[in-house]
Structures are given as C-alpha cells and as structure tokens.
Amino acid sequence: MTWKTRNTSTSWKRLTACWPSWAEAAALRWSVLYAAGAVVAALTGPAYGYALLGKATGTVAEWTTAGLYGAAALLAYALPRRPDRAWPSRLAWPVVALCLTSGFAFLFSPAHLLAVFLGRNQPPMDWAAWANQAFAVTGAALWARAALAHRRRARGRCGYCGGHEAPAPVARRTRAGLVAVAALVPYATLKTAWALGATVGYTGTGKPGMDPRYTSDLGIRLYEHGVDVTAVLALAGMVLALALTRPWGLALPRLPLLALGWAGAGALAPFGIFLGVLGVLSWTGLTGLGITDHAPWVVVVAYGGFCAYGLALGRATLAFQRSGRRACTRCTGARAGQAMPRPAR
C-alpha cells in the first residue's frame, strides 16, 4: 500500500468515525441541492429524473417535491439549533421515509438491471431517473444519521455509540431470521412447483410464472429443468436473513450484509403490503384490479409474504447492526478516568 492510499484510507476512517459532527450539515446541504434540482426541473421541463406525474413544465410532482425538500432543509437547519428538544429528531424520521419514497425504485435496481441486461423486450433504462433515485436513497442515509445524532444528543447520550455496550442476544436475532425464512417459503415453494409443471393457483394460459417474451434464454432453460430464477433469489434472501441472525454471519463482511438487509427490508415490506392489500380486495370482490392470471390467495399468501419478510429482515438487520456496537473510545476513556483512584497527596 502506497503512502497516498494509506493516507486516503486513514482520512476516510476519520471522516466516518466522526459522523455525528457532520451528519446534520450534510443533511441540510443534501436537502437544499435536491430541492433546487426539483425547482429547476419544474421551471425548465422534466429533467434529472424528477418528472413523476407528467412531462409538462411545472408539474405538480416537481413543485411538490421542491416544497417538501425545502421544508426538510429548514428542519435540517433547526436540528443543531435545538439540541435539547425532541421534536426535530421526531420530524426527521418522516423525512427519511420521504427520501426512501423518492428513491424506492432504486432499491429494486439490482433486479431491474438484471432484467434489462438478461431479459427480452425490456423498456429502456432511464439512467437520469436511476441516478436521481440513488441520490434520494443517499439522502435517506444522511437524514437517518442526522436524526440519530440529534436524538442521542437530546437524550444526553453519547452521539457516537449511544451508550450501547452489550450486543443483542443471539436467540432474539435468530427468531427474526426464522420468521423471514418462513415468510418466503410459500413463494419459493409455489414458484418451484410451477417450474416443475404444476398449475395450482394459476388461472391464465401458458406457463405459470414465466413469460418467454421477457425471460432470458438462460431463464427459460433453467425453468424447463424445474428451476425458477425468482425462487433461487428467494433462497438467497433466506440465506441473507440467516446470515444476519446466526453466529456464522458475524464472520462475513459487515457492511455488505447491512446494505443488503436494509435495502431488502425497505423495498419488500411496502411492496408486499401493496400486493397483499390488492389480493385481499380482489379476493373479497371489492375491486376487479389485481394480477388477473393468479388466484387471489396466491397474491395474498405468496406475494404478500414479501411484507412479512421485509419487516422480519428489517428487525434482523437492526439487531445485527446493534450487535456490533461497542462503547466508543470517548466513553471508555471517560469511564476509565472515573474508575481510576485519585492519587494521594
């Protein structure tokens, strides 16, 4: 490792280690920049991936986005100026949800990119919208850090470690992983049964669970041999949940597991809620909308399981994140100083 690389790595570690000192300012700058981009898009026409409800100049979506994130900038300005109040950090968490809503599609981008490059007849990739959504997810991360730092400060706790020393019990984390695995079993079982030739729960024509117009040649060959690609992805999701909740997962790289865990929880929990509600409404006859070539129970049980998986995965990821917390050097140094006896005069 060269001196320049080593120096850059050290500077990055110092920057990430002192995140409570810059998180609120970063959230403020991000909000101003994102709101300004929405204003430019509203005045000049759809640009930078902001056009959500239409393509006309000054659409409701673009002006609404500018107003919401402008208000978020004002809240970020108030965070460091109201360090002893609880309401700024409470209002900051809805901003995190707002950012995730703006960048929701980015959480599915690995599957989308895989479909674009390996599938057929896929719509062209809107790279401007993709970059915009990635920037929104980055804002969610910055706002979560800012909210956490302010909440700890308001409660009189250490902003760096929160005063947590003991990791979460492994047994508690194991239960969350098992719930996540159980939530995907109906989906993986049903898709595998369809690949093996069964048609239970399928009311359409052709092969259930596979449209040759949009499936890659590799996906078709695997499906003909009884392997559904989405079922394989479900198995990978089960392994991820177990890695977050079993002792052997502690030996794996920590940051990739946290990134995959939070991305999966943020994407699949609301997606499963939408599909589950849609299936219930279709099942009860309250609406004719839904997946027309699937029985309503399939949408509720199999696809609605994404919601339970996302919630359980979020719980497992949070416990995994907390399990690595230790008292920071500031807290350990202060405690060591308090524990040391005073020298005799």
TrEMBL record:
The lineage of its organism: Bacteria, Bacillati, Actinomycetota, Actinomycetes, Kitasatosporales. The chain crosses the membrane at residues 32-51, 63-79, 91-115, 127-148, 178-202, 222-245, 257-283, 295-316. Keywords: Membrane, Transmembrane, Transmembrane helix. The keyword Cell cycle does not apply. This is Integral membrane protein.
